[in-house]
């Protein structure tokens, strides 16, 4: 290996190391709030169970508090309550049966069986069943058979209650930060996918459009996480007075999440139809490719404006420009698939307007007006700006 090559490898390794350190610090910063919550909840749970209620070794209290916090990040209040109940049920059943029948392989099996049956009978979902079974196993394998009945069950209730109190009242996570982190990858994936579709149409490249469709399908996971974060944040704000001031900025995400998900679905239909148009050798006017790129710009602007907590005026303007450009495609001539693409652009533009806060009836009216506006009355954007180079 030459000296130049060796230096190059060392330089690349250094870059990777620095990048890894930065990413690690970023993850640690995002996890710091949860760590503080868990430490506070564990300390309070032990204090209440040991010093207030007089339990000599209430180690299940801090365990239940930490399990509640760690398992309920991004989940809704009902699922969090199930986690608390599941831990308590498992510990209670395990405690009672060990006192009656002792411990051993068949006793552990019976304890888990009964914990799952009880958790299912009370109508619990998967979180309650899993926590009941795992808590029962913990009791059966790691604790002795001495002690009063239901003591550890009581510890679990104390710890679970403290965990809920910390996460909703005493030290709630900032729901706006949680939603922003969940929304960012979803919106980036949608914007990038639209820019890829526009580029593929302009270059008549089916491979590019196929890649775009794959990326948009892969974005389903990010959008599901975004939707779950919005639901959890809505409840977090409702129960945590300290976070009520976040309601205004959070409303942008809450009101727009469903509509931006609709836009994702419409854009996947658009990408499939674009592939069909190229396969059938249909004409694709340049303005149609430009309009799809403008939709990508609109989504990117929406992401930026939501992150800043401002009204997404620029995103609305760009979505309407996309609608105006696609209307010109009819004048230049499109085939059947091209007509479907025009319709999908109009629908996606309406979705983006709705996500930006435009009224249900007003959004389609604005799109219709933009499509019908004479093309000479608007300035045509450059292809470079529309296809993959959104403004900052």
From TrEMBL:
<feature type="transmembrane region" description="Helical">
    <location>
        <begin position="83"/>
        <end position="102"/>
    </location>
</feature>
<dbReference type="InterPro" id="IPR049453">
    <property type="entry name" value="Memb_transporter_dom"/>
</dbReference>
<keyword id="KW-0472">Membrane</keyword>
<keyword id="KW-1133">Transmembrane helix</keyword>
<keyword id="KW-0812">Transmembrane</keyword>
<feature type="region of interest" description="Disordered">
    <location>
        <begin position="370"/>
        <end position="392"/>
    </location>
</feature>
<feature type="compositionally biased region" description="Basic residues">
    <location>
        <begin position="370"/>
        <end position="382"/>
    </location>
</feature>
<protein>
    <submittedName>
        <fullName>FUSC family protein</fullName>
    </submittedName>
</protein>
<dbReference type="Pfam" id="PF13515">
    <property type="entry name" value="FUSC_2"/>
</dbReference>
<feature type="transmembrane region" description="Helical">
    <location>
        <begin position="153"/>
        <end position="173"/>
    </location>
</feature>
<feature type="transmembrane region" description="Helical">
    <location>
        <begin position="108"/>
        <end position="141"/>
    </location>
</feature>
<feature type="transmembrane region" description="Helical">
    <location>
        <begin position="31"/>
        <end position="49"/>
    </location>
</feature>
<feature type="domain" description="Integral membrane bound transporter">
    <location>
        <begin position="44"/>
        <end position="166"/>
    </location>
</feature>
<feature type="transmembrane region" description="Helical">
    <location>
        <begin position="55"/>
        <end position="71"/>
    </location>
</feature>
């Amino acid at each position: 290996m030459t000296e130049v090559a060796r230096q190059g490898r060392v330089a690349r390794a250094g870059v990777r190391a620095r990048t890894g350190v930065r990413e690690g610090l970023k993850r640690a910063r995002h996890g710091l709030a949860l760590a503080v919550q868990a430490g506070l909840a564990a300390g309070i749970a032990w204090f209440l169970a040991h010093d207030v209620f007089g339990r000599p070794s209430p180690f299940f209290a801090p365990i239940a508090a930490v399990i509640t916090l760690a398992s309920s990040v991004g989940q809704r209040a009902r699922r969090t309550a199930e986690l608390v109940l599941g831990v308590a049920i498992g510990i209670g059943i395990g405690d009672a049966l060990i006192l009656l029948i002792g411990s051993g392989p068949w006793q552990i099996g019976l304890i888990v069986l009964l914990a799952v049956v009880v958790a299912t009978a009370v109508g619990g979902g998967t979180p309650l069943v899993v926590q009941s079974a795992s808590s029962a196993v913990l009791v059966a394998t790691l604790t002795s058979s001495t002690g009063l009945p239901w003591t550890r069950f009581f510890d679990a209730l104390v710890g679970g209650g403290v965990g809920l109190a910390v996460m909703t009242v005493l030290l709630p996570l900032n729901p706006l930060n949680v939603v922003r982190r969940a929304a960012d990858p979803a919106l980036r994936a949608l914007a990038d996918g639209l820019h890829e579709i526009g580029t593929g149409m302009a270059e008549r490249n089916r491979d590019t459009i196929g890649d775009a469709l794959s990326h948009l399908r892969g974005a389903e996971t990010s959008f599901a996480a975004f939707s779950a974060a919005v639901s959890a944040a809505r409840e977090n704000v409702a129960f945590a007075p300290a976070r009520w001031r976040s309601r205004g900025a959070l409303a942008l995400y809450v009101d727009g999440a469903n509509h931006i998900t609709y836009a994702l679905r419409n854009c996947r239909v658009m990408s499939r139809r674009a592939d069909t148009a190229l396969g059938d050798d249909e004409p694709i006017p340049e303005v149609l490719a430009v309009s799809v790129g403008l939709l990508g710009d609109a989504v990117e602007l929406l992401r930026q404006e939501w992150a800043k907590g401002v009204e997404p005026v620029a995103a609305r303007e760009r979505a309407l420009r996309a609608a105006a450009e696609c209307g010109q495609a009819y004048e230049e001539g499109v085939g059947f698939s091209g007509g479907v693409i025009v319709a999908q652009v109009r629908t996606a533009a309406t979705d983006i307007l709705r996500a930006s806060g435009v009224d249900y009836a007003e959004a389609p009216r604005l799109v219709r007006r933009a499509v019908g506006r004479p093309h000479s009355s608007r300035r045509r954007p450059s292809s470079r700006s529309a296809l993959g180079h959104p403004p900052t």
